[in-house]
Design brief:
Blueprint (H helix, E strand, L loop, with lengths): L8 E5 L17 H14 L5 E11 L2 E4 L28 H13 L4 E4 L6 H10 L7 E7 L4 H11 L7 E7 L13 H17 L2 H9 L7 H4 L7 H9 L5 E10 L3 E8 L11
Parallel strand pairs: 1-6, 2-5, 2-6, 3-4
Antiparallel strand pairs: 1-8, 7-8
Length: 279
């Protein structure tokens, strides 16, 4: 097993639907998010051997990992132009990584099934089209568990931490605010308040206290207005668990997403080129 400096992990807010293919129809809406995604390869330095993506758009009763060597596309949205249902992002899968993930999680007490049929959902193909447009980095998706238990997903991250020293980039993909009924002025104040809490928790709280606060995230102000269903928040717990004792950094932030919404993305762990400065 190759060994490198541990890669950081990320939680990215992935935007809305197939937005990279609709920029002409939504000029400027995702410019700040796009800039943050374009910075990721430089932050990493070297191209990762593969990516393990945990998307808020795939939940299962028990954990499942995508094992198709050539994952199909999953157009898991509606109401978008016809051309967005013919998008192709032909990144290869990695049955080898799928089996490695299955082994690590099974060893930690989390049985995992291999899913050969699951395709890339837009929580993966939309942001990674920006990060790696040539689709030349293998990607494997891991589902979130449908009970959304925070402690469980943090523990899954801990179990997956060895991958970081094997050249695998672990990315949770969701949205730091996700209330479909309040992507409007009604979401402005709640999203800003929750974002303030989340950024302080991730970036300014000692690691063990950070873990406690993330487990109890639903007590934060006004958490349930921002995540009435936490499918888009839970991927952050996996990313945090895999770098539990390391610093958090905000890599994207704006207060005008969809016009009114405050949203952020985070990195856990140092940039690889700055490892020596972390003491």
């Amino acid at each position: 097993m190759m060994t490198t400096h541990p890669l950081p992990t990320y939680f990215i807010s992935h935007g809305g639907g197939p937005w990279p293919w609709m920029k002409d129809a939504m000029p400027g809406v995702f410019d700040q998010l796009e800039r943050s995604l374009l910075q990721m390869p430089g932050e990493l330095g070297a191209t990762p051997r593969a990516i393990l993506a945990i998307s808020g758009h795939w939940e299962t009763a028990g954990f499942a990992v995508q094992s198709n060597p050539h994952p199909p596309m999953l157009y898991d949205y509606s109401g978008f132009p016809e051309h967005t249902f013919h998008i192709s992002y032909p990144a290869p899968g990695s049955p080898e990584l799928a089996r490695r993930v299955q082994g690590l999680l099974s060893q930690a007490g989390f049985p995992v099934t291999l899913d050969e049929k699951r395709g890339f959902d837009h929580g993966v193909f939309a942001p990674f089209f920006v990060v790696y447009p040539e689709a030349n980095v293998p990607i494997v998706q891991l589902s979130i568990r449908a009970d959304y238990d925070p402690a469980t997903h943090l523990a899954v991250g801990r179990a997956l931490a060895p991958l970081r020293s094997e050249g695998i980039l672990l990315v949770g993909s969701g949205l730091s605010y996700h209330n479909m009924r309040r992507f409007s002025a009604a979401g402005a104040a709640p999203s800003k308040a929750f974002d303030t809490w989340l950024t302080e928790t991730v970036c300014s709280t000692p690691p063990l206290e950070r873990t406690r606060k993330l487990i109890d995230w639903s007590s934060a102000p006004p958490a349930r207005l921002c995540h009435p269903q936490e499918d888009h928040f839970i991927p952050l717990l996996v990313a945090a668990g895999a770098a539990e004792l390391e610093p958090g950094t905000r890599t994207y932030h704006e207060e005008t997403l969809f016009g009114n919404i405050t949203a952020s993305s985070y990195r856990f762990g140092n940039e690889p080129g700055k490892q020596e400065q972390s003491h």
